[in-house]
Amino acid sequence: MNHEAVMAIAEAIEVMKPDFTKLSDSIWDFAELKFEETRSSEVLARALEDNGFSVRRGVAGMDTAFVGDFGAGKPVIAFLGEFDALAGMSQVANVAAHEAMIDGATGHGCGHNLLGVGSLMAAIALAKYMKANNLPGTVRYYGCPGEEGGSGKTFMVRAGLFDDVDTALTWHPAPFNGVRSTNNLAVLEYYYRFKGIAAHASNAAHLGRSALDAVELMNVGVNFLREHMPQDCRVHYAITDAGGKAANVVQARAEVLYLIRAPEMPQALDLARRVEKVARGAAMMTETEVEVAFDTASTSLLPNITLETAMHEHMVALGPIAFDEADLAFARSIQKTFTEEAIRSSIRLYQIKGDVFSNTRIDGSTPMHMGLREFEGQSHFRAGSMSVTSAGWCLRRSAGRLLGRSAPIPIPGRSWRRGKVRPPTRRCHMRQRRLRQPGSP
Length: 441
What we know:
Alpha-Beta Plaits; 22% strand
């Protein structure tokens, strides 16, 4: 795509910005968990229909999954959108401190209210450009539910919804702006459910068989296992059911959720087998029973350097983003909630080697990244996992992903600090109430 086309699409996004900023705010307010994004998915699907797309709802057996198409024939250019929230991330807007609107309620701690709408704007703007210039092809938007632990895209791939796609684009909110090529970890999720025998913990403890003891022993065993697994693997757990709140009862049930990560899926499966042995050993020691329930999985990421390079070149052509004093002041107030080590760690995590538009070293002294991350033209290791990887393998390297600056340095994902902010003042960007976010993949 030539420079004139890129600028024309960027200007179209600028015109769309006010309405779609409101749409993003609505999704932020809905804050719906994985596979429960009823209102979020519906407002996105209606926006597609209002702009001439035909929409198929409830695809791949998921009520909140949908696909929108504009045009016909090849090439099929896809944009991936996410819109699910996180449990316990409720946050009052425009407040640089952790303040829940409702204690324990859901909230958008990873910017998916921006992600889904940003991809939507890109799809609609491209469709309008293709129509105005009589260009052949299909623009497609995938409404992908359940990114947070649900692997919604994996189910969509399994249903064949990506079979005819030629290329797919997506992005994610981040403290830095630019293209980043990574080799993410494959991940498996399992529930380990232990069943024991209840008894009075004082009068008849000898009659009880504690499922909670089994969970604790499993966790201890896995923690010892860490020394003997490959260094680039990761294992995390959360006790999802401790059996009850009464301390004088031998708990007859308990459950723990494990995420098992490795650079490639065969390694993850090997490690999962070792974790299962620990679980069964814990059951044997406590004379309880254990059920191993597979939940979801995502593969490692398959990067596309050619597509990523093209994305970077277009971002260079669009130029840097200007932030006003209100943006910087609010960003600075949030940045103060982090330690210096957290800021340095964020710069290392995102592999920031330099900036396209500035020779100044990025060190966190400026609360917002004002430029564009240099693209090194090669992939590097990242210890996270994403469900978008399933689409990447299906498309055989025809998928690209970029970072969009939406937060102060060094805000991580899954944080209350990713609060909602006011509309932007410059093209191609939407803000979470005060922090701008690129709206075009």
